[in-house]
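are you around this afternoon, could really use another pair of eyes. what follows is a protein written twice so to speak, once as letters and once as structure tokens for the fold. i want to understand how the tokens follow from the sequence so walk me through it. anything you notice is useful, everything is just below.
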Amino acid sequence: MTKYKSTSEVMKIISDKDKIRNFGVIAHVDHGKTTMSDSLLAHSGIISPSTAGSALAMDSMKAEQERGITIVQANVTLHYQQDDDDYVINMIDTPGHVDFSGRVIRSLRAIDGAVVVCDAVEGIMTQTETVTRMSLEERVRPVLYINKIDRLIKELRLTPEKMQETLAGVVANFNELIDTYAEDEYKEKWKVSIQDGSVTFGSAKDKWAINVDIMKKKGVTFNDVIEAYSDSGKVEDLVEKAPLAEGVLGMVVKHHPPPHTAQKYRIPKIWKGDLESDTVKHFLLVMIMVLQL
């Protein structure tokens, strides 16, 4: 059960910089990132769980609601509890349409990690590549959420073996993007892997997510996922065992750096001045000291 936090409790948590994460949600248009964001908001008590997935709460503009796309970036602060540790997670939902790529770049400069949302059936699309390239150019570490797993079951009717083969192909294609666009220092370190939990699968619409850590902890298998969508199954049982927030935010906590760690390698990328000047060296030192307070 989610335990809600007061403002004073949140302020206490953020006094420990290791318990802060700043991440954005990026994706090709209509791959489900705003639907996923809804479920994360519901987990933190910001919107009702009954409306998560349909409220599109991060799309506050009338034009966004009418067109069903994100036009401007929106940010929110979430509370997440993992085991006995509390975290404050700042999330930005970014536009997915190619016409608003400039707004994605601005968002990326304010965060340290990105959750790339990808449709399990469509796979890596043009805007998936574009936003991932932007993320890597800004030294923002990506992790992967493969969404709409229900489509593999209900539309393609894949067996567990074929499902795993399809998902492995999406992961391989995503890692090709990292190999192509990441700086040499980060090519291998930032590749995602099913085995280490930097890849999560699920259905944002149905509010569940699994990765290797959850599968081990909760004993959930791909057979359980398929069974949940059978005539005799209940998706609600899957949601109870593997809620979306636990899969996605758990992945963020595990694989995205806290700000004081990220800024050591991100400030030289963001700052366009002379990095060798005494002024800049002192500025960088002060920034890192402040982030470590």
About this structure: The two ends are 32 Å apart (CA to CA). Residues 57-72 have pLDDT under 50 and may be disordered.
